[in-house]
Amino acid sequence: MSKVIKGGMVCTADRTWKADVLIEGEKIVRIGEDLVGDEYIDAEGAYVIPGGIDPHTHLEMPFMGTTAAETFETGTWAAAVGGTTMIVDFCLPGADGSIKNAINEWHRKSAPQICSDIGYHMAITGWNENVFDEMKDAVDMGVNSFKHFMAYKGALMIEDDEMFASFKRCAELGALPMVHAENGDLVAELQQKYFDQGITGPEGHAYSRPPELEGEAANRAITIADTAGVPLYIVHVSCEQTHEAIRRARQKGMRVYGEPLIQFLTLDEGEYFNKDWDHAARRVMSPPFRNKQHQDSLWAGLQAGSLQVVATDHAAFSTEQKRAGRNDFRIIPNGSNGLEERLAVLWTEGVETGRLTPNEFVAATSTNVAKILNIYPQKGAIVEGADADIVVWDPKITKTISPANHHSILDYNVFEGFEVTAQSRYTLSRGEVIWAWGQNSQPQPGRGKFVPRPAFAAPNVALSKYKELTSPKMIKRDPMNIPAGI
Ligand code: DUC
Ligand code: ZN
Ligand code: ZN
Ligand code: ZN
Predict the structure, then answer these.
(1) Ligand 1: which of 285, 289, 480 to mutate, most ligand atoms within 8 Å of CB?
(2) Given this model, what pLDDT does residue 9 score?
(3) How far apart (Å, rounded) are the C-alpha atoms in residues 71 and 154?
(4) How far apart are CA 86 and CA 256, in angstroms?
(5) Between the CA atoms of 16, 17, 18 and 22, what dihedral angle is there, to the nearest 10 degrees?
(6) What is the atom index within ligand 1 of the atom nearest the CA of 285?
(7) CA separation for the pair 315, 266 (Å, rounded)
(8) Which residues does the UniProt record annotate as the domain Amidohydrolase-related (predicted)?
(9) Would you tell me how many other CB atoms lie within 10 Å of the CB of residue 340?
(10) Parallel, antiparallel, or unpaired: how do β-strands 419-420 and 399-400 relate?
């Protein structure tokens, strides 16, 4: 059974033109005029874009004494509604510290639930011989990127020497290191200081994580990556300082990538001063939302190409879960939503306002992600031979975002009240229509597939070389336990 997406404007990262798209099975087989097939999908008046890829989600992640409420099923269903056909989720090691076991655990949880495709990043939360060895297993298992937390002291935070060892390992494996850039030592100090001053509410979260501490960590990570001779991906870039660090590094010829979040582009720090505690706490995430000056810098980075992708860091905790931090902002589970809203909000606030072209929108939501994470052109492209992950993107459907009409499991939505001016008319995942506007039927859980991401071409370094140079040490960390006041 072939399908033709008919009458739309194909819009890729490079250009926009009127064409039909012929799909056979799971693949795009032809792009051209007046194509014929067994079935037709109406794209008149709409753009035909590569399915969104969200490079940063935390579904069902055990974190800060609880587990993120969004499941792999509800998350990928919400994603499909929003025009996202693939997510890259963060694997955290469990109590045994094993990378291999963590990846298998993520497969166990995600495989029966996912409605569309998935990849993983692996978190490196400590350093020892086993981590060194298992990083190779991860790459062999199709996980070619490793995240390092420079914050969450006493739980996930990694020290500079460990990060350097891990970055060197990435260099020899052809893997991409990533960082959560915040100076965790200073964040912990500031948290204690504000708490001791009697600031116990969500505003303390914003005060204790100033942009300077993010910029410092970003610069440090860039220096470490440069010394290790490896590219670097900085997740959730929230502020001008981090953007500037990335811009400078790129100007020097380094491959440093920056990922602003849709939340950071459109929501500001004023949210933490809302009189309604629940409202403010629902928006507590790290790094926190910033002011307009920082937002302007992020938009400029997307326009100029010094920032490449827009993600969500979707880590959804219910109001009830957030209330664990009722008397102490330090234990409010960190995270906010956006998986379903990312494309529509970026379109409305970016393309409709003239800040981004439709092609830049496609690059930031899909194509650049696929390139940076080494799955292009299987994903992120409308070309013959690519997976038919395609969205018929209708710039005339308007919607007011609300928990009443969203598909996330959450009981609130940080974008509530946003009027968006575009939606997915049809979302296709490997040739199958998994969302049709107005029908609201859920795709089959378990139909999604894990997408292995191969290693990048690596310099030819003997695998044993750094094993002698790096001093393995065992530091026990427990992501479930972030003690207050450290
Ligand atoms: N930040 C969050 O807000 N949530 C999950 C992890 C992170 O780094
Ligand atoms: Zn330290
Ligand atoms: Zn992070
Ligand atoms: Zn994250």
Answers:
(1) 285
(2) 98
(3) 27
(4) 23
(5) -90
(6) 3
(7) 17
(8) 47-415
(9) 29
(10) antiparallel
Residue 143 near residue 103, CB atoms below 8 Å: yes
Q: Which two tokens stand for residue 15?
A: 């250009």
Nearest CA to ligand 1 atom 7: 286
Q: Give the C-alpha distances (Å, rounded to integers) separating 481 from 66, 154, 247.
A: 9, 8, 35
Residue pointed to by tokens 């993983």: 120
Cβ partners under 8 Å of residue 202, min gap 6? 272, 277, 280, 281, 283, 284, 329, 332
Which pLDDT score is estimated for 111?
98
3-state secondary structure 319-354: HHHHHHHCCCHHHCCCCECCCCCHHHHHHHHHHCCC
Q: Tell how far the Cα of 234 is from the centroid of ligand 3, in angstroms.
A: 9
Rounded CA gap, 195 and 216, in Å? Answer: 23
Instruction: Please tell me the number of the ligand nearest to residue 179's CA.
Output: 3
Tokens of 435: 């969302």
Positions of the chain with pLDDT lower than 70, given as ranges: 458-479, 481-486
Q: What is the pTM of this model?
A: 0.95
What's the pLDDT at 477? Answer: 63
User: Which pLDDT belongs to residue 480?
Assistant: 73
* Rounded-to-integer distance, Cα 308 and Cα 319, Å: 32
Spatial distance between the Cα atoms of 106 and 85, rounded to a whole number of angstroms: 18
User: Residue 363 corresponds to which tokens in the numbers above?
Assistant: 């690059």
At residue 75, what is the residue type?
A: G
CB atoms near residue 17 (< 10 Å): 10
Q: Is the shortest distance between the CB of 285 and ligand 1 below 6 Å?
A: yes
Strand-pair category, 390-394 with 256-260: unpaired
How large is the angle between the packed helices 129-140 and 160-173, nearest 10 degrees? 40
pLDDT at 472: 47
Which residue blocks in 208-331 are alpha helix, DSSP H? 211-228, 240-251, 262-266, 277-282, 292-304, 319-322
**Rounded Cα distance, 204 and 214, in Å:** 16
344's tokens: 């529509």
pLDDT for the residue 440: 82
- How many A from CA of 63 to the centre of ligand 1? 9
Assess whether the C-beta atom of 58 lies below 6 angstroms from ligand 1: yes
Q: How far apart are the CA of 235 and the centre of ligand 4, in A?
A: 7
CA 243 to chain centre: 17
Classify the phi-psi angles of 469: left when phi > 0, otherwise alpha if psi is within -120 to 50, otherwise beta.
alpha
